[in-house]
Amino acid sequence: MKKLMSGNEAIARGAYECGVSFASGYPGTPSTEILEAYSRYQGVYAEWSPNEKVALEVGIGAALAGARALVTMKHVGVNVAADPLFTISYAGTNGGLVIVTADDPSMHSSQNEQDNRNYAKFAKIPMLEPADSQEAKEYVKLAFDMSVHFDTPVFLRSTTRVSHSQSVVELEERIEGEDKTGIFHNPAKYVMVPARARVRRVEVEKRMIEIGKFAESFPENKMELNNTSVGIITSGMSYNYAKDVFPDYSYLKLGMVYPLPVKLIREFASKVKKLYVVEELDPFFEEAIKAMGIEVVGKDIFPYTGEFDPGIISHSITGISAETVTLPALSLPQRPPNLCPGCPHRGLFYVLGKLDVFVAGDIGCYTLSFMKPLEGMDSTICMGASIGMAHGMSKALKEKGRGKVVGVIGDSTFIHSGITSLLNMAYNKGNSVIVISDNSTTAMTGLQEHAATGRTLQGEVTRKLDFALLAKAVGIENVRIIDAYDIKNTKKVMKEELAKDAPSLVISRGACVLLKKKQKGTPVKPFTVDPDKCIGCKMCLGLGCPAILWKRFKDVDDSYKKTKKQEGISSINTFLCTGCTLCQQVCKSGAIGEVHDNE
Amino acid sequence: MNNSGKSILLVGVGGQGIIRASDILSSVIMDAGYDVKKSEVHGMAQRGGCVSSHIRYSDKVFSPQSMKGGVDLLISFEKLETLRYLDYLTPQGKIIINDEEIYPPSVNMGEGEYPSNVLETVSEYFKDVRVVAASSLAEKAGDKRMANTVLMGALSVHLPVNKTIWEEALKRTFSGILATMNLSAFGMGRNV
């Protein structure tokens, strides 16, 4: 049976078909849907772990017990998981361990553009890279076979364009493997104290030589000889882009991007006149091929940054672009992503943007609040950085920083990597105010469960982390819980906590509006602006709510004009409004109220 | 230069049902016997930002996204968004525009201007431009949110896909009264 599937769904399907029954991960674009899709198959176990390090350790445990384990994360997640990663490479995996790294060239939804092929070389772990959904499904199986055969973790690298594009996949039945799980005592292999690690270190080098030999005949390292005037060495989605514009050239498509098939590359190079390497981001192949003494053109003509498309490859090689209509330079208003109407983060950042403080922020939807008009965030570096940064800043500023530094973090991000920083702040006698903007879900990646939602990935009811109790346990005495939709109280509580010479945790509670929509709770009562009362002060526009519109008197009846200075009135799109009341709270003239049925 | 196959580009604003429409579109093209690939970017785009979805079909498709100057059909779910993607079209490219304006934040706040002459600008540079009042047609069919189905109807006459394949796909995607409503919205789009 044929089915259109995204690369992520296909990875999940591949794991299912080859009998994998254990998977863990942490959500992160563009990897999230892999575990979501996998978790819906019958008879499998799948979990969201609190972060990628834990997810990998969980996977390692399963593999050492003889299971086949799939672990998924986005590219920056591998940074978090790097500690166990480098050493499991030494210990080996017993069962099977495949780690999916979903990279994000062009940073569609990421804070950096790292090329995780470097991790394969760095951690001495082989890496496969599919080019479309069918390959994604097949390569998962090949990766598990390699993992079991060579006793090594194996990387499967995807990119946004592979993960989130759809193509036709041929479905197959699941093959249940023989249950090989059990308790295996093997301290020589699994206790990585220096004396034993030194022994394993040598084994790793031997293994890489063996896998290098295997790569020479690996069927997914494919040579396609056509017109031999030009040869292209490439992998993954770049292969598709290149084939799209140069279908007649010769190709060496590398399904295994590390280790490289040295002999095969030499053979291909000897058969073509001019050799190019087409690869997004780092010159990973290019440097290796040049080190082999082979002349090849790569980053001299292709961009280092951003994802490719067929046009970029074509233009880089020929200098010619496809014919387009010559258009005048248009200056169009930008359309940046925005916090949703009714978003529980809005009121908090409205308040923070007006306080004279440095807001160390974090990663989630709320990062969008750095933009106008909220301007409620001053920094975002990585998952969990807010709390440590706020503490460090307060310590460095000493008296100058009293009451001036706030750290803000979302609930899922706090669980990911904020807990240890909060503990650190209490232990080292910090005095920052930390806010957990708790929307009861992992919103940015599409509403995933986490340790404080009370449900598991597979929908089971479970225990629910209590942030207030946790804060007390690590030694934070000032813990306040506030309603995310009460602006006045949010401001009052923030001021009170900032005035204290002790660390505080404020928990700003309000469920994600998309989650509420999904759960279909109480019906929405939208608000409206009474044009007879609106004085055009624009206070409501300061919330940056997509449901609130400004109407100028040149476009709307100017009989509503009340003062000489007034230029227009606000109005509310009742289709978008969720009735969160924030605009009503900031309105100076009492012009905003619920829509009544007779209107 | 051989940008093989046909390329369709759907563009608009997060929340307009573009991904849903492109899911249905790519499945009917597959059902009609073609190799098909589609590509869009999830994540940040879902928060009211720009959304675009490439669909490409042929006997064998390599790239899931087209290059600039390679798109045959542009379906714009929002007027202003049309202007952002014109350079993706071939000079002979066809354009279908939904006659709907969704203001970006800067316009909402009275700081930016929504371009007043979108249709004129587009028609000046491209010959085959069709404007569809998709939202009001969808409202007639029962729900404004089916504007995406109306637009699929308008697009469908340009594709080598039998009408019954479309109707089967809509019946598969929606159930009960929603299926009937969507079939009606699709028919309205097909007849504009």
How would you describe this protein?
With 599 residues, chain A is an alpha/beta fold. Chain A has 22 helices and 22 strands. Chain A has four domains: 2-217, Rossmann fold (3-Layer(aba) Sandwich), CATH 3.40.50; 221-318, Rossmann fold; 345-519, Thiamin diphosphate (ThDP)-binding fold, Pyr/PP domains (Rossmann fold, 3-Layer(aba) Sandwich), CATH 3.40.50.970; 527-594, Alpha-Beta Plaits (2-Layer Sandwich), CATH 3.30.70.20. In chain A, the strands form six sheets. In chain A, strands 3-2-4-5-7-6-12 form a seven-stranded mixed sheet, sandwiched between helices. Chain A has a five-stranded parallel sheet with strand order 14-15-16-18-17, with helices on both faces. A four-stranded mixed sheet of chain A has the order 9-11-10-13, sandwiched between helices. Chain A is globular and about 80 Å long. Chain B is α/β, with parallel strands linked by helices and 192 residues long. Chain B has a domain at 6-135: Pyruvate-ferredoxin Oxidoreductase, domain 3 (3-Layer(aba) Sandwich), CATH 3.40.920.10. Helices cover 40% and strands 22% of the residues of chain B. Chain B contains eight helices and six strands. In chain B, strands 2-3-1-4-5-6 form a six-stranded mixed sheet, sandwiched between helices. The model of chain B has no long low-confidence stretch (mean pLDDT 92).
Helix content of chain B: 25-40%
The main sheet of chain A orders its strands as 3-2-4-5-7-6-12
Choose one word for the global shape of chain B: globular
Q: Which superfamily, in CATH terms, is the homologous superfamily of the domain at 6-135 in chain B?
A: Pyruvate-ferredoxin oxidoreductase, PFOR, domain III
Q: Shape of chain A from CA axes?
A: globular
Number of domains of chain A: 4
Any guess at the CATH architecture of the largest domain in chain A? 3-Layer(aba) Sandwich
Content-based structural category of chain B = alpha/beta
CATH class of the domain at 6-135 in chain B: Alpha Beta
CA radius of gyration of chain A is 28 Å
- What's the overall average pLDDT of chain A, rounded? 96
Output the radius of gyration of chain B: 16 Å
CATH topology of the largest domain in chain A: Rossmann fold
Kindly provide the name of the CATH class of the largest domain in chain A. Alpha Beta
Number of strands of chain B: 6
How is the main sheet of chain B built? 6 strands, mixed
Name the average pLDDT of chain B. Answer: 92
Query: Largest interface, with Cβ-Cβ < 8 Å?
Result: A-B, 63 and 62 residues
Low-confidence stretches of chain A: none
Strand order of the largest sheet of chain B: 2-3-1-4-5-6
